[in-house]
Specification:
Helix content: 40-55%
Largest sheet: 5 strands, parallel
Number of strands: 7
Strand order of the largest sheet: 3-4-5-6-7
Shape: globular
Distance between the termini: 30 Å
Structural class: alpha/beta
Strand content: 5-15%
Number of helices: 10
Order of helices and strands: EEHEHEHHHHEHHHEHE
């Protein structure tokens, strides 16, 4: 487990200035890089590897997945399973171009996710498809409440105003569904549930989120019947 302590969704390796604050050393990406050096030798013979994150960690597992998966694949492991809980990366206009530019500059993302040129030309949401293409066989999921109070607040702050989180989540799912046949055997599904709770896998028993236990079981077991759950 990697703690979140540098305000960058585990995704930066840069000293940035956000006036009127003093310069902030944001090293979340570098922390993951360092941890991989210990994690891979320790678990290189694991029967199944899961890379999961909650909240800022959901952002982190998505933006760091390529370096994590590449390291495990280098020792003969298949692509690790990816679970993003409450860290959605929405498309425009739900995450504005200005907000993406601020994050790109502040976190140095052009360097850290240089493997995803579409993230610069199309938007950060393109990382989902890029990962599926770079790591054939990836089984990835996104879990989020349709009115998650923290995610909603973050997007309102980034965008300089409010927008519909529920609409943004379903817009993202429609886009992800549109290319699934083109990236097989990789596959991604989403589970959205009603309410404003922030997170489903850490802050409450799995059974408190209808359908979550079955959804994750089918993701982990490689079930062909695994599907979206959007209530």
């Amino acid at each position: 487990m990697l703690p979140h302590c540098t305000g960058d969704g585990h995704s930066a390796n840069k000293i940035s200035t956000y006036p009127p604050l003093a310069p902030v050393h944001q090293v979340g990406y570098a922390n993951v890089s360092a941890a991989i050096q210990r994690i891979v030798p320790t678990f290189r013979d694991a029967t199944q590897v899961v890379f999961a994150g909650y909240s800022a960690g959901g952002i982190g597992v998505t933006f760091n997945y390529h370096q994590f998966a590449t390291a495990f694949e280098s020792v003969g492991q298949p692509p690790p399973i990816l679970i993003n809980d409450a860290g959605p990366t929405l498309r425009q206009p739900f995450l504005s171009q200005h907000a993406q530019d601020v994050l790109r500059e502040g976190w140095g993302l052009d360097e850290n996710i240089a493997y995803c040129p579409a993230c610069q030309s199309e938007g950060f949401h393109a990382i989902f498809r890029t990962l599926a293409e770079l790591h054939p066989g990836l089984r990835s999921s996104l879990i989020c409440a349709d009115a998650d109070v923290v995610v909603f607040g973050l997007y309102a702050l980034l965008n300089g105003g409010t927008s519909s989180l529920e609409d943004g989540l379903h817009d993202l799912s429609d886009w992800i569904a549109s290319y699934q046949g083109e990236v097989a055997p990789s596959v991604q599904h989403e589970l959205y549930y009603p309410g404003d709770r922030h997170g489903a896998t850490v802050v409450a028993p799995l059974a408190d989120t209808p359908g979550l236990t079955e959804f994750l079981t089918e993701q982990l077991d490689g079930s062909a019947s695994w599907a979206d759950v959007q209530r």
